[in-house]
Design a protein that fits this description.
alpha+beta; three-stranded antiparallel sheet; 32% helix
C-alpha cells in the first residue's frame, strides 16, 4: 500500500488474514510524524519488521507475518 498512515493503520487488522504463510505487508507513503505510530500498529497486528526505509521524510515498512 502507498496511502496515508490512517488507512494503513486501519488495514493492519485485516491484512494478516489475507496473506499466505509468512506473507509480506509492504506499506509506504508514511510521513516522518506518523512513522512510529504506523510501525507499532503493524507490529501489534502480528508482523515482524523485516526492513524499514526512509527517503526525504517518507517511509516504507516491510513486515512479515509471524
Amino acid at each position: 500500500s502507498n496511502i496515508v498512515a490512517d488507512v494503513i493503520i486501519g488495514l493492519t487488522g485485516y491484512v494478516p488474514r489475507l496473506l499466505a504463510g509468512k506473507g509480506l505487508f509492504i506499506a509506504s507513503g508514511i510521513i516522518d510524524e506518523r512513522y512510529e505510530e504506523t510501525r507499532e500498529a503493524i507490529v501489534r497486528s502480528g508482523f515482524v519488521i523485516k526492513n524499514a526505509l526512509e527517503r526525504d521524510g517518507w517511509h516504507c515498512i516491510v513486515g512479515e507475518r509471524a
